[in-house]
Amino acid sequence: MPHLLQQLLQENPRETLWIAEENSKALLQAGFRFDGDLITNRWDIAHFADGRCHHSFFSDFRFAELERRYRRIVFPVSKEKAIVHHVINSTPEVLGAGGELALLGGKQSGIKTYAAKAAARLGGDKNLVKHGLEYSCQVVFHESDGQRLDDQDYTRLRPLDALGGLYSKPGLFGWNKIDRGSALLADRFAEHLPPPGANVVDLGCGYGYLSAELARHGTFHFTATDNNAAALLACERNFREREITGVVTPSDAGRELGANIADLLICNPPFHQGFQVEGDLTDRFLENAARLLRPGGTALFVVNEFIPLARKAEPLFTDIQPLERRDGFSTFRLCR
């Protein structure tokens, strides 16, 4: 896909908005420079785009915040259907009449279905073209009278009974459920509490479930961080609603946070990004956890049981204690 994406972005870049989700990272990592504007919901992509694009925006695809309209949108389709539907629904707000939406993706990405939906929504032809194992679709926007796609009310934060009243929204992985691994880790909190007022880092916070659960046990100061803009919005809301003391800030696996700031670190690291399994994610979370912990600090991790966390953590921590293995997950206590 990077070659096809690069080709599309080189066509009239000054009039193009690049919607960059997980499938755009490889091209930016390779040093590609883009003379147009980029919007992304991922902090790591925003970091790579800094200085490589005319203007980059980090947000939960809030297109109303953009400073202008464009003649073209280029969008490698996301794994999350609600995001793709939200982008297609929002296209009339971003393009002028006669503007073009270019979608691209592999066979398993749903690109053919999205091409048909975009054509119906925008009143144009889908113009689907195969490029080896990839497809592109370029739809000219004629009118926005087509029926809106079901984007699960994408922009709205909402409290969910399934989450015990915590706020969440589409665009966040596992947005409408409590992750089994996180629940397993939260069950161990009472056994490993720091002293009152301790500094806690929630690394990869999502909508803030682990912080909310730990806050039930005492008063601590939290630093919650995530790579995903939707997660940050939801976590901020939950901190306000639950009166949790702390800050919510973007980072790429904690890389931007200062060293030696945490008495306790809690983490359920992702092991995938988008359509790919990203093998070094656990390593990056562990490396940053070790850097963020103060001497004598403790990290509580939960991972899928097939991830060899103890082996990966051995060079970084002086004490590695397995806690529990259940329901396909393993929990660990790691100390500096």
TrEMBL record:
Residues 166-331 form the Methyltransferase small domain. It comes from Microbulbifer yueqingensis. One of its GO terms (biological process) is methylation. Keywords: Methyltransferase, S-adenosyl-L-methionine, Transferase. Signal peptide: none annotated. PANTHER family: RIBOSOMAL RNA SMALL SUBUNIT METHYLTRANSFERASE C. This is 16S rRNA m(2)G 1207 methyltransferase. One of its GO terms (molecular function) is S-adenosylmethionine-dependent methyltransferase activity.
